[in-house]
Design brief:
mainly alpha, MFS_trans_sf, transmembrane transporter activity, membrane, 3% strand, transmembrane helix
């Protein structure tokens, strides 16, 4: 955020010898370099925050729950209130700040203060050592199967390593991976396990299941593509629409607040409704039904946005504003509210259904890895949404 703040023309215009106004001619090579440096740093920071924060909170909160005191409850209350207040300020306050140097600078200062507060408590945090990566086991099974690619599977399945401990029937697909459980005759079992050449059939079956879920996870590109519309086309739609409510100018960021509320409450309403309608095997069917509902919401969101855009263009044509791109369109910006609500409901249902599906069908140890694979599919959709802007 610091580099992003310095990339604005007023901050370094005296050093770079450029003008300090927000004009294209005032943006020099230094500002561009700072901007292009800030963007990947933001992406890396966001990725690290997304991956590390849930695990960190789980480690800290598990200890707090066991030692719950009035002081801890009071600290949690004030922490939640501070987070809510900062969120409200970000939605409402920053929208009315015109200079981009302040819009970027204020969050940069807040992040710096938060980092310092976090570091001051570093000695009191609960530390849990590395537990090993189950995802690494998947790659090791693939390597072991590849090293035995030209070996034939034994005629008797009982000769595979760990076959007697297998609780579930073997899957019929991806039989080539079963070669990772072939015991080589020229080495002891212990030596093969130390060199990652031998794995139990249970570990092989877990690897098969994870690989079989990857194509389904890639289908989540659709959700990412629709979600990206909120950051591109939806914002562009409302940029020149009438944002006046009386004498008050409504910031576009208020629609993201509505989007977040729909994301929080719609999944809860859907879960209550589904549990009433489907009393038999509700836990098993709910994730699939939730994913189907997410797809339906995505379709409705896209249709609604298209209808609103069609109406917006009709208003532009009827008022002769085709050659006046900077003029305010006499159409209230609250026409965008339904599509933002549908977008929020889509995001909430997708997150809830994805977590429910993986938590029900895979082991807890592999849950977070499969969740990230689903996120990869969603991220590809976001990239597709960015490319679609240029179409």
């Amino acid at each position: 955020m610091g580099f992003l703040t310095m990339s604005t023309p007023p901050v370094l215009h005296k050093v770079t010898g450029t003008c300090g106004s927000y004009e294209p001619d005032c943006i020099g090579d230094t500002q561009k370099a700072l901007l292009y440096t800030a963007l990947p740093l933001l992406a890396i920071g966001t990725a690290g925050h997304t991956v590390s924060l849930p695990s960190f909170l789980e480690e800290q909160i598990s200890n707090v729950i066991l030692n719950l005191t009035p002081r801890v409850c009071l600290a949690d209350f004030f922490g939640s209130f501070a987070a809510f207040a900062i969120g409200c300020f970000a939605v409402m306050g920053l929208a009315y700040i015109k200079p981009w140097s302040l819009r970027f600078g204020i969050p940069a200062i807040i992040i710096l203060v938060a980092t310092l507060i976090f570091l001051t408590r570093s000695c009191s945090y609960v530390y849990v050592g590395p537990q090993g990566s189950h995802l690494a086991t998947v790659f090791k099974v693939l390597m072991a199967a590849t090293s035995k690619l030209f070996r034939r599977l034994p005629a008797d399945d009982k000769e595979l390593h760990g076959m007697s401990d297998l609780a579930k029937p073997r899957t019929t697909g991806l039989r080539c991976l079963d070669k990772a459980a072939i015991v080589l005759p020229d080495q002891s079992v212990e030596e093969q396990q130390k060199t990652w050449k031998l794995w139990t059939i249970s570990e092989v079956e877990a690897t098969k299941f994870i690989i079989s879920l990857i194509p389904m996870s890639m289908s989540f590109v659709f959700f990412g593509l629709v979600s990206s519309l909120g950051y591109t086309f939806f914002v562009e739609q409302g940029k020149h629409m009438n944002r006046k409510v009386g004498k008050l100018t409504v910031p576009l960021t208020i629609f993201w607040w509505f989007c977040d509320q729909a994301s929080s409450y719609f999944p809860k309403v859907f879960s209550c409704f589904f549990s009433l309608v489907c009393r038999k095997n509700a836990q098993e069917r709910a994730p699939i039904a939730g994913i189907m509902m997410s797809m339906l919401l995505g379709i409705l969101c896209s249709i609604t946005a298209a209808k609103v855009e069609s109406r917006r263009l009709d208003v532009v044509k009827s008022h002769g504003l085709l050659d006046k791109p900077d003029e305010t369109i006499p159409m209230t910006v609250f026409w965008l509210l339904p599509q933002f609500l549908l977008l929020g409901a889509l995001n909430g249902m997708y997150d809830m259904s994805l977590q429910s599906y993986y938590s029900y069908y895979i082991s807890p140890t592999m849950f977070k890895y499969m969740l990230q694979i689903g996120r990869i599919g969603e991220s590809l959709g976001f990239v597709g949404g960015i490319v679609a802007v240029y179409v």
